[in-house]
Amino acid sequence: MHESMTRMYEYRLPFLRGELAHLPERLTLTDLQSLDHYHYCGTTAIDIAIERLGITAESQVLDIGAGVGGTARYLAQQVGCRVTGLELQPQLQQMAVELTERTGLSQRVTFIQGDILAGIAGTFDAWLSLLVFLHIPDRKTLFSQCAVLLKPGGRFYIEDYVQLQSLTPVEQRVLAEQIACPYLPTLESYQQDLARAGLGVLAYENVTPLWHNWVHQRWYQFQQNQAHYRQKHGDDLVESYLHFYQAVVDLFSGGNVGGMRIWGQLLP
Questions:
Q1: Which of 93, 107, 136, 262 has the fewest CB atoms within 10 Å of its CB?
Q2: Statement: residue 1 has pLDDT above 50
Q3: Residue 23: partners with Cβ closer than 8 Å, 6 or more residues away
Q4: Distant-in-sequence, close-in-space partners of 43: CB < 8 Å, separation ≥ 6
């Protein structure tokens, strides 16, 4: 599963490096805003997580599936908290470190390469994970490891895909082969899996219409700018993005795949 996910998203780093070639050595978060967030709705989603988690400057926060570090850097700059980013793929973790150095945030943001299923050292006031758990079908191990990472009373925040209705065979194949999502739970089973690990859900929000509009706009904007991107990055890279973006639009248009924000607290 890990290897297949790496292959599916291997076009992200060449695209990012191509865009970075036109930016100054010293970067701001504004420079990177359209490049370093792999979840939906950009910094707006992180602002919501900050509020739901009650993050302050004193908080120790873990970002599970940190990618190239956009979420972790934004948290540190906006709130002043200390953030650890956990990333499975070494090349993404290395890029996260590089970009954090170039934005001058290395004192507050640390990135480690590792697998959440194997566990990591330390405990945190809060953790968040944005559009990452959909790649991890072993929910029992996942949430057990996530639970032990929280201090007593610690909070968690998740944004993820959920199954709204029975999936068609085509949707199952697209999820597995193009999205690297081999298992898609319903909201009910999602909550049950969290509860079994001692993670109590305080609330959830159905964001399916919001995400449907967002992924469609993402596809449309990329399509409108594809001539520019083809000149900078080549046809193969652009075709990979268009193929992926179209697949996501189709999934959300079908009515069986949805999006949820789920937040809660470690049970006593």
A1: 107
A2: no
A3: 31
A4: 33, 37, 74
